[in-house]
Amino acid sequence: MYNLARSLLFKLDPEVSHELSLDMLGASSRLGLTSLYARQQTTTPVNVMGIEFPNAVGLAAGLDKNAEAFEALGALGFGFVEVGTVTPKGQSGNPKPRLFRLPEHDAIINRMGFNNKGVDHMVSRIRKHAYKGVLGVNIGKNLTTSVEDAAADYLACLEEVIPYADYITANISSPNTPGLRSLQFGESLAELISPLVEAKKRYAQENGRQVPLAVKIAPDMTDDEIKMVADTLVEQQVDAIIATNTTLSRDAVVGHKYANEAGGLSGAPVKDASTHVVSVLCDHLKGTLPVIGVGGILSGTDAVEKLQAGAKLVQIYSGFIYRGPELVQEAVTATDTYIREASLDK
């Protein structure tokens, strides 16, 4: 059924088909129809960041920016769903067109620019649903906020969403907000993350509930830069690293008609770079922080490769666009088998 739906949706403008798909999923949730396509498997729970995930496969941020369809998406069998990126104030994002499919490469280029309806809207959406799955919220800064003042935007979002999130991700690696990636390094990173960690500690003390903080990083770094980022995040006492966001590289899609479009490239072309970052992080961290692997997962084998590189969880996004719910089930089955066999070997 998904192949038929995809053939129809792919005839539409990418952003139109994206919005239509979310609208249909959201409507199915409001009408109580998720049981018609719900997929649940008996899997081995995975404990990461102090959270028990029913399985190791999550939906990455970017698909459901405004928490419009997270309940329906969760019913497809994901072990967790991450919504956002959300900013303090709603913003329209970059001019259209800003989303491009490269089906020959199982890839997508986007320069969306954190388009979203703002954190108040997101919170109102989450509060309306008694969602029983694991929900992450990905936070960022508004375009009009300077890089120097970015911490205030991240803090404002964190304080709004923390009562409703199971974990929070600080997105400092989107290539589509000018200057954002500069926040990944040195004092800029420490100054951004420190108030977020302090705020979540205060929340835990006042409410008796721990809400972990993850940080999402880019694939376009040298090994030394990856290690420096990891060291800073350990020092700042974050709870996990998500590796990776989209890439600026076009090496894998040279010659494609969209190869020169600005934005981040995701899907199959980023798989190896993402897995390399996961491997460097895990070798360097030696278990100090868990790593969540994302980038180029289009099969169960791809998902397992991230775990073999050291990741504790994985997320999919572009692969879901190309393969739909079948990929979710395949990845869940493959990762669950790997985790159980690895546990027996110990």
UniProtKB/TrEMBL annotation:
Stretches assigned to the Dihydroorotate dehydrogenase catalytic domain: 46-330
Keyword Magnesium belongs to the record: no
Statement: the UniProt record of this protein carries the keyword Oxidoreductase: yes
Compartment annotation: Cell membrane; Membrane
EC number(s) from the headed UniProt entry: 1.3.5.2
Binding annotation for substrate: 65, 110-114, 171, 176, 245-246
Pfam family, one: DHO_dh
Co-factor note (free text): Binds 1 FMN per subunit.
InterPro entries: Aldolase_TIM, DHO_dehydrogenase, Dihydroorotate_DH_1_2, Dihydroorotate_DH_2, Dihydroorotate_DH_cat, Dihydroorotate_DH_CS
Superkingdom: Bacteria
Main subcellular localisation: membrane
The protein's enzyme class: oxidoreductase
Catalytic reaction annotation: (S)-dihydroorotate + a quinone = orotate + a quinol
Cofactor(s) named in the record: FMN
Keywords (A to Z) from UniProt: Cell membrane, Flavoprotein, FMN, Membrane, Oxidoreductase, Pyrimidine biosynthesis
SUPFAM superfamilies in UniProt: FMN-linked oxidoreductases
Residues engaged in binding FMN: 61-65, 85, 138, 171, 216, 244, 267, 296, 317-318
Bilayer disposition of the protein: Peripheral membrane protein
Subunit structure: Monomer.
Database matches in PANTHER family: DIHYDROOROTATE DEHYDROGENASE (QUINONE), MITOCHONDRIAL, DIHYDROOROTATE DEHYDROGENASE (QUINONE), MITOCHONDRIAL-RELATED
Function as written in the Swiss-Prot or TrEMBL entry: Catalyzes the conversion of dihydroorotate to orotate with quinone as electron acceptor.
NCBIfam families in the record: PRK05286.1-1, PRK05286.1-2, PRK05286.1-4, PRK05286.2-5, pyrD_sub2
Family to which this protein belongs: Belongs to the dihydroorotate dehydrogenase family. Type 2 subfamily.
Listed name of the protein: Dihydroorotate dehydrogenase (quinone)
Gene behind this protein: pyrD
